[in-house]
């Protein structure tokens, strides 16, 4: 029945939103003021894009469009051939049926389109959250030479959107005089502590801060200012302890 596929898509969208929110809640530690914890490479950021279901809904949309065009064509032909009152009266019942058919087909078509746009908007909103919460390691979506879990689940156009969106934010952050001194992608919640203890999860090398230079070697621990290592925490290189 028309609309059943769109219902499946909306159910999947709700499930995707719930699963992704669960992941974000786990990846963002409220005790750290919303700063990302270390990332488990086996976790899935967002479920795979359902190409097959989208394709079938688009086929249904095309079929509905053909149905509405056919009904309009039949209506026009009847109006052109009607030249007597008896013809109008005899075709009155059929005219009501065709109007109902046209209305139902049009409603199903519009609903399918709204469901498709809602699905795309839901996934784009999730991608936006991933970018703003520091869950994107780099513009090319690679981390230490290997693809991070979750990016394979995005469609080609979603990966392109995510890369361009990240580039746009980086460009605004680097070129604007107003934002050059402000980390617009930083933590929006005030820290509970100015200085924190951290453990280095990956070899980074020397980091220059206002209070000196630190050599971040794996499994080493430091007492540093939180604002100096916030991005490293978000990217999963260090962890607050």
Automatic annotation (TrEMBL):
<dbReference type="InterPro" id="IPR056783">
    <property type="entry name" value="PSF1_C"/>
</dbReference>
<comment type="function">
    <text>Required for correct functioning of the GINS complex, a complex that plays an essential role in the initiation of DNA replication, and progression of DNA replication forks. GINS complex seems to bind preferentially to single-stranded DNA.</text>
</comment>
<comment type="similarity">
    <text>Belongs to the GINS1/PSF1 family.</text>
</comment>
<dbReference type="Pfam" id="PF24997">
    <property type="entry name" value="PSF1_C"/>
</dbReference>
<dbReference type="Pfam" id="PF05916">
    <property type="entry name" value="Sld5"/>
</dbReference>
<feature type="domain" description="GINS subunit">
    <location>
        <begin position="67"/>
        <end position="174"/>
    </location>
</feature>
<comment type="subunit">
    <text>Component of the GINS complex.</text>
</comment>
<dbReference type="GO" id="GO:1902983">
    <property type="term" value="P:DNA strand elongation involved in mitotic DNA replication"/>
</dbReference>
<feature type="domain" description="DNA replication complex GINS protein PSF1 C-terminal">
    <location>
        <begin position="193"/>
        <end position="240"/>
    </location>
</feature>
<dbReference type="InterPro" id="IPR021151">
    <property type="entry name" value="GINS_A"/>
</dbReference>
<keyword id="KW-0539">Nucleus</keyword>
<dbReference type="GO" id="GO:0000811">
    <property type="term" value="C:GINS complex"/>
</dbReference>
<protein>
    <recommendedName>
        <fullName>DNA replication complex GINS protein PSF1</fullName>
    </recommendedName>
</protein>
<dbReference type="InterPro" id="IPR005339">
    <property type="entry name" value="GINS_Psf1"/>
</dbReference>
<dbReference type="InterPro" id="IPR036224">
    <property type="entry name" value="GINS_bundle-like_dom_sf"/>
</dbReference>
<keyword id="KW-0235">DNA replication</keyword>
